[in-house]
Amino acid sequence: MQPVIDTSPKVSDEVRKTTCYMCACRCGINVHMKDGKVAYIEGNRDHPVNKGVLCAKGSAGIMQVNAPSRLRAPLKRVGPRGSGEFEEISWDEAISTAVGWLNELHETAPHKLAFFTGRDQSQSFTSFWAQNFGTPNYAAHGGFCSVNMAAAGIYTMGGAFWEFGQPDWDHTKLFMLFGVAEDHDSNPIKMGIGKIKARGARVIGVNPIRTGYNAVADDWVGITPGTDGLFILSMIHVLMKAGRIDLDYLGRYTNAPVLVDADTGLLLRDADDKPLVIDRASGKPAPFDRPGVSPDLSATHEVDGVTHRPVFHHMAERYLSEDYAPEAVAERCGIPAPRIRAIAAELARVAFDEAFEIEREWTDFRGETHKTMTGRPVSFHAMRGISAHANGFQTCRALHILQIILGTVEVPGGFRFKPPYPKPVEAHPTPHSGRRPGRPLNGPHLGFPRGPEDLQVDDAGKPNRIDKAFSWENPMSVHGLMHMVISNARAGDPYHIDTLFLYMANMSWNSSMNSSGVMEMLTARNDDGGYVIPRIIYSDAYSSEMVAYADLILPDTTYLERHDCISLLDRPICEADAAADAIRWPVIEPDRDVRGFQSVLIELANRMSLPGFTDADGTPKWTDYANYIVNHERRPGIGPLAGFRGTGDKVGRGEVNPEQLNRYIENGGFFVEHIPEAAQYYKPWNTAYQDWAVGLGLFESPQPYLFQLYSEPMRRFQRAAEGHGDRQPPEHLRDRIRTHLDPLPFWSDTDQTGNAGFTVTALTQRPMAMYHSWGSQNAWLRQLHGRNPLYVPTKLMREHGLSDGDWARVTSPHGEITVPVMEMAALNENTVWTWNAIGKRKGAWALDEEAPEATQGFLLNHLIHELLPPKGDGLRWANSDPVTGQAAWFDLKVRIEKADAPPDESQPVFAPIDSPVGTGPKELRWKVGK
Asked: Residues annotated as region Disordered (predicted)?
C-alpha cells in the first residue's frame, strides 16, 4: 500500500512582501511566515524588477536572518585593536559615547570626521546626514567599484549601464556585453538574455574569463585584460572608415556637429551660452536647439582667417588614424584583426540592415514632429571588468561612443535609460567641501565638476578631502575614493583625522587593496602610544573582519528587520518603461539588542541637534528612519518615495502622506508609474518624456540636451594644464592631466612601473551565488562556494608543470600568496583569476577556524597595493584612474610558480581574531511552525 504523501504542504500562514537585499538587484520577495518566523522566501511575481524570478542569493536570505555571525548588542573595545576583544554595553552608553566623540568635531573641526559607507543602498540619506554634520569627508564604495562606468556614462550621454539603464529586451537582436560582474543585476540580465535567445538573437561576450553570462554567449571574446578600450576604438575605426554610422542621429542628437573653437578647444557658443552648429539651410552658425535648425556635420566656420571645425571632424581625424586599425591593435588585444572586423561588421549589419520602425508619433526638442521611431536592434552592457583599470574612464567613454555612432541609444532595440535618467551633467550638482564648524556643509559632497573651478582644493592647491577626491590628482572623482581614506589618514596626507566612521565597509579585509597593510594602518600608533587614527566607529549586522578593528560597534539589523528606502533620490528600481521605487519594512522583529543603522544616525543627529534634523525650536524633525522616509522633503512636495503621496492619489509630487508606508506594504513593497507610450524612447529629446519627467518631479523644467562625444569639462582641465586660467595644477601633474583628460576618448596602456618580470594578469570576479562578503558566510551559499582555487589557463598550467589541486606561489611587485590551483581552458591564455571575497580570516563570521574559507580560501587583495611601485621621482602615485581615481584592481600583474612544498593552508596566514559572537554550531538546524 502506497503511503499518503502531502505533495503541497502548507508553506505558511502569512505572506509578507518586501524587497530583497542579497544583491543590488533589489528584487521583490514574498516572505512566508509561520508562527511569526520566516519559513520560506520566494520571488514576487507582481514585482517590476524580477517578476517572480529569484536567484540562489535571494532564496538564501533566510540564512542571513539566522546567521550565527549576527552581532547581538553594542560593543566597546577592551583589548588592543585587531584583537576582537569587546564587552557588551547598552545602547544608551553606545550613543552617548559616539555623541561625545562626534559633537566636539561638529562644533570645532567637522573635517576630522571621515564617514564612509559600503553597499548600504541608502546613500541619499547617509550623505544628507554627513552634509548636515559638516564634514567634507563622505562617500560610498563606488570609487573602488564602478565609478568609471557611471561617470563616463553621465559625462557622455547622461546616464550609464545597469542602475541607469537597460537593453530594450523586447526588440534587441544583438546583445554585446563587456566585463559584467555576475552578481550585479543578475536576475534581470538572466531574464533578458533568456528572452532574446528564445527568439534567436545573438549574444557576444567580451571578457577574459568565460563564466556566467559569457558561458551562454554565442560568441566569446577572451580579450587581454585592460585592452577593451583599444578593441572598441578599433571597431569605431572600422565603422567610420566603412561609413557604417548613423549620420542623421549624430547630427540631430549629439554634439558631433557642434563647432570647436580652434583657439581654445572649447565649444563655440552664442550670447546665451548655447553651443553653435552650422545650419544646413542657412549655412550660418545657429544655436543647436533652435526650432527648425538642421545641423551640418561637415561644414566649417571661418572667422578672421581661423577655421572652426565641428566635433565630427576631430573624431574623424583621431579614429580614422591607422593607429586604431585592427591590424595595429590585434596583438595587444589578443583578438585577431579579421575577428575585430567581423564583429564590427556584425554590429553594423544588425543596426542598419535589420533596422525597423515603430508607428509612434513624437515631437523633439526643436519642435519637429516625427511619425515613426527608428529601431536599431543592437544593445550593449558593461560593468566593473572594463571599469576597474587605470584607463577605465576613457574605455567606458569609448564604449558609449560606439553605441552612439551606431544610433542605438534610446531607440527601439537599443540601450534605454531608466528614470530619473537621462539627465545632462548640468542637471547634477557640483561637489562641495567647505569647512563650516557647527553648520552644514555648503552643498552636497559629491557631484560632477565642470572644470577646475569645481575642484575641492584650498588656495595652495592642497586637497580639502581626506581621500583627495576632486583634487588635481583625481579631478572628476564623482563617487569619492573610499579605498584611499585609511592610507591617507595614516600618512596624515593631506591631514590627520580624529574619527573614522564606517558602515558595512569591510576595509580590513576584502574591501581594501593591500589588506595586510590596511590592518597595520588601523593599528598604527604614534610616539605617545595613541593610535594614529584615534577613534573608529563601525556598524554592521555581522561579525566581519572589520569589527575587530573598531573601538565602538553599533550593531545593525538584518534586512528583514528594518525599514529601508530604495528611492528615486538615490538608486531606485526603475525600468526603462516606468519609474519605480520600493521599501523594506520589518517583517520580523530582531531577537537581539540591535537597531537599524539609519535610525541610529537619526538618534545621533537628534542628540547633537544637527541642522537639517532639528526644527527652529530645537525639537527633532524625525524620530526614526521610517518617520524620515515619510516626512522628509528635499523640495516642496518631493520626498524619498514617489508613490501614494497626498491622500494616496498623488505621484511624484504631493503632500506628505502619513499612511504612505502602509500603502507601499499593501502594494507589495513597491510603487510603479509607467511612462506614456509616446514618451518611452528618445527620452533626452522627446518633449513628451521631458514633460512627464517634470510632472513626476524628476526635473523642475525640461532638460533636453545633446550627447557629448567631445567632453568640454575635460577640455577645461586640459587647458589648465596648458597654462590657462587662474587655477593651475602642480607641475608634476601637468603632463598627466594634459594627456588623460582628453575630451575625445583614447586608449593608453596602464602604468607598468615595477612590473618587470610580472607578465600575467590576475583578476577577481564575484560568483552569481554571492554578493560582497556577507554572502560567503551564508550556510546555504557556502555549499556552492566554500573555497576558491586560482583558475589558471591551460598554457600556463603546462608551462609550470601544474595539475588540478597543486599549489602555486603567486607573486606581485607588492606581495606573495600561496594557493591551490585548477585548470581552466575557457580563459585568456595569460590571465589567472579567482572568486572574490570567499577567503575569510579565522575568527570572523562565526566560522570554525578550520572552515575551508579560512584554510583554502584566499584573497588576491594581498597582492594589490593602493599605490604604484616607486618610479624614482620621489613621489608615490595612486594605483587608480587619473581622471576619477577609481581603484585599478584589474591592473594587477603577477608571476606564478609551483610551490615546492604545498602548505597546509593558503598563505599568508593571519592570527585568529577573537569574535564577539563566538563560533557557530556545527549544524544549523531549526524548525519553523508545527
From this structure: 422-458, 901-930
3-state secondary structure string across 828-883: CCCEEEEECCCCCCCCCCCCCCCCHHHHCCCCHHHHCCCECCCCCCCCCCECECCC
pLDDT in tens, 872-911: 888 889 999 999 999 999 999 999 999 988 899 999 999 9
> Domains in the chain and their CATH numbers?
75-141+426-559 (3.40.50.740), 712-743 (no CATH), 760-898 (2.40.40.20)
Angle between helices 326-333 and 228-242 (to 10 degrees): 160
Q: Is the pLDDT of residue 142 over 90?
A: no
Q: Where are the alpha helices (DSSP H) in 722-851?
A: 731-740, 794-799
Question: How many other C-beta atoms are found inside a 10 Å radius of the C-beta of residue 731?
Answer: 7
Q: Are 579 and 572 in contact (CB under 8 A)?
A: yes
pLDDT range class, residue 928, cuts 50, 70, 90:
confident
Helices (H), 243-325: 247-253, 311-319
Query: Cα(878)–Cα(895) distance, rounded to whole angstroms?
Result: 22
Closest by CA to 445, choosing from 436, 458, 434, is 434
Residue 139 phi/psi, 5-degree rounding, is -170, 170
Q: Are 746 and 318 in contact (CB under 8 A)?
A: yes
Residues 6+ positions from 150 with CB-CB distance below 8 Å: 142, 160, 164, 478, 479
Query: Could you tell me how far CA 4 lies from the centroid of its own chain?
Result: 52
Q: Which of 168, 170, 152, 172 is nearest to 160 (CA)?
A: 152
Q: Is 55 helix (H, G, I), strand (E, B) or coil?
A: coil
Inter-residue contact 186 to 55 (CB < 8 Å): yes
The whole-angstrom separation of Cα 358 and Cα 340 is 31
Helix (H/G/I), strand (E/B), else coil: 755: coil
Measured CA to CA, the distance from residue 697 to residue 674 in angstroms comes to: 14
Helices (H), 334-426: 337-348, 384-387, 392-405
Q: How many Cα atoms sit within 13 Å of 590 on the Cβ side?
A: 18
Determine contact, residues 688/675, Cβ cutoff 8 Å. Answer: no
Phi, psi of 704 (to 5 degrees): -65, 150
- Strand, helix or coil at 245? coil
* Amino acid at the residue 405: I
Q: How many CA atoms lie within 13 A of 39 on its CB side?
A: 17
- Determine the Cα–Cα distance for residues 208 and 205; give it in Å rounded to an integer: 10
| DSSP line for 345-360 | HHHHIIIIIT-EEE--
pLDDT of residue 570: 87
Distance CA 650, CA 880 (A): 45
Q: Which grid coordinates are listed for 360?
A: 509612434
E strand or H helix at 509 = none
564's grid cell: 529601508
9 — pLDDT class (breaks 50, 70, 90): confident
For the purposes of burial, counting CB atoms within 10 Å of the CB of 171, is it exposed (0-12), middle (13-18) or buried (19 or more)?
A: buried
Going by pLDDT thresholds of 50, 70 and 90, the confidence category of residue 916 is very high
* pLDDT for 536: 98
Contacts with 765 (C-beta within 8 Å, 6 or more apart), sequence order: 181, 182, 209, 211, 385, 833, 835, 836
Q: Cell 577567503 sits at which residue?
A: 839
Nearest to 110 by CA among 82, 135, 73: 135
Judge if the upstream peptide bond of residue 440 is cis by omega within 30 degrees of 0: no
Task: Give residue 2's pLDDT.
Answer: 82
Distance CA(736)–CA(839), nearest Å, equals 37
Best CA proximity match to 128, nearest among 377, 445, 376, 383:
445
- The set of cell numbers assigned to 791 is 583558475
Do 814 and 864 form a contact (C-beta atoms < 8 A)? yes
CB atoms within 10 A of CB 436: 13
Please determine, for residue 120, whether its predicted confidence score (pLDDT) is greater than 90: no
